[in-house]
Amino acid sequence: AILAQVNSGLVSPQPALDPSPRAITMAAPGAMFGAAHVVVRVAGARCASRYDQRSFGACVGSVLSRGYLSSARSSPPTWPNYSLYLVTDDAYLDDKFLAKIEAGLEGGVTAVQLRLKHVSTAEYVRWGEEVRRLTRIAGVPLIVDDRLDVALAVDADGLHVGGDDLPWRAARRLLGPDRILGCSTYGRADLVREALSPEVRADNLGSGAIFGSPTKQSSVPKGVEHLGPLRKVVLEEAAGRSVPIIAIGGVGLESAAACIRSGADGIAAVSALLQHEDAEGTKRAAQAMRAAIEEALSGRPE
Is the pLDDT of residue 13 over 90? Predict the structure, then answer.
């Protein structure tokens, strides 16, 4: 029943499920590939931290039966506003991580992307639940990078995918129409067209790398100059929809306004916000960047 619904695009399974480990295993014999793999990983991720409290099988069955795979969100924040988009990185995953995110939100961060490349699924979920608590209090969206299973497990507001991640059409089908889907375009017109196709309908687009970045050393810088042509392609392909462009790649306070004036609608910041010694430094950086971004946005022609 699970496989039939997922493969047909109905992500939320029927509530009447046998929660026994054997039943769950039999329900997804092809769980090493395709949509069934997502189902198993979502439920498993949700239960990983509870393994010592009750049987894994019963937990997975309970997760599925309560509809954690549904595309519907509960109490969604008022969004989207991507003007100052905080993106995390494993390099800053320490005892100040949550305090810095909270401080960034207090300083004016309008969206948070949880991007962790070197943690286990269980750890990703635990961090996701903690960050989700902060973003819900602040009323801003939480986006999970790459991992659809984690996004659904923590009831995030959306998912961000790059060119080598889950295929974008599959991501939208499994994510559902109501959650945020962001796509990295790397400044390429062909990827913009794919992201804005009816089967994907991306809600926001990442630019090509503006500058070199210590968190993505393989990125090829394209400078602020590519934002104008990128914006033109987006306007042509968006069919009247408002699809924000988010400038990413080594952007800080000194370059944020230039990115906005060149065509970006928001700034994704990693090191510029998280590199500071303490949370107060993150808050001050967020306040300064948000002020510069808003000033640039207000001076841009409609």
Answer: no
Read off the pLDDT of residues 199-249 as tens digits, 9 standing for 90 and up: 999 999 999 999 976 666 566 899 999 999 999 999 999 999 999 999 999
193 is catalytic: no
Torsion of CA 144, 149, 150, 154, to 10 degrees: 100
- CB neighbourhood size of 260 (10 A): 26
- At 174, the amino acid letter reads L
pTM assigned to the model: 0.76
Catalytic residue among 188, 216, 219, 261: 216
Residue 101 · residue 86 · CB < 8 Å: yes
Conformational region of residue 86, where left means phi above 0, alpha means psi within -120 to 50, and beta covers everything else: beta
- Taking each helix axis from N to C terminus, what angle separates 121-138 and 97-107, rounded to the nearest 10 degrees? 30
Please pick, among 41, 46, 100, 115, the residue that the annotation labels catalytic: 115
136 part of the active site: no
The Cβ of residue 224 has, within 10 Å, a number of other Cβ atoms equal to 19
Tokens standing for residue 275: 């590199």
Map residue 123 onto helix, strand or coil.
helix
Tell me which of 41, 147, 184, 222 is the catalytic residue: 184
| Dihedral angle over CA of 299, 294, 255, 231, nearest 10 | -60
184 catalytically annotated:
yes
| Residues paired with 157 in a beta bridge | none
First to last CA, the chain: 50
